[in-house]
Amino acid sequence: MKKEKTIKTAETKVIGDGKNLCVLAICTLTQIQSQPYATHLQFAYRLAKDNPDWSFILFTPYRMQIARFRNMAAEAALNQNAEYLMFIDDDAILVDYPDIFNRLKERDKHIIAPLMYIRGYPFDPMFFKYVRTKDIYIKGGVGLELYKDFKTDGKIQDDGLLPVAAIGCHVCLIKTEVFKAMEQPYFMTGMNNTEDVFFCMKCHDCIENIEIFIDTKLSVGHLLLPIWVNDYNVDILRKFYEELKLDVPFKFEQEYADFPPEMVTNELEKLGEDFEE
User: d(Cα 117, Cα 135) in Å, to the nearest integer?
Assistant: First the structure.
């Protein structure tokens, strides 16, 4: 017998019939790049084709502070009584899984994301686990740590799901009932935290049985220069940066920012030749 999920809810005014409705929130923080947007278009095509009984609302306001964007997206989802809110960052590469909405939805979790890596060396996972700490400033002696050892700590379930303490919202699917259990702000950027970690910690405070998972059977890319990092190439890229001592990747990016794309590609190819030697 399937265990029934319960979630604390607060009274929230909603309008319209949001059954089979999802708000797609795409931020616009970086310059327009053809690689991610091409995969976004492919994703949108498959989304409509594979889900004829679903409706989707695109929420993509003009560039703004990231926490404000996410709070506005959550409010939009609530106002439309949508079942889901899906975040997709503008530097997310969805080439491998244009059906990612369905795959995440079928997992039936409150908050779920695919494997994601931070866009910069050493390309750590973009999700966190709990750790014990003696830091008196951390609530209850428990803190957060990037989940670097997730592949070896034995916590990945047989179905490929990994329970985590917090995620980055680079790409994720959230049931809107989660927002009904809390009050604004849902997302807030602090001195020592990003807006999405704040959101996850608030979920833990407000929702007794909150489910936050990573689906390790899915991996989305995070745009770098003319390439992206994902679960298939992350170990190769780490070794590449370490061997060539490219420990300041953003300096490299800035130095070549005004150069023609073909020149950047040629320089990377040269570095690759040196690496092979």
Answer: 27
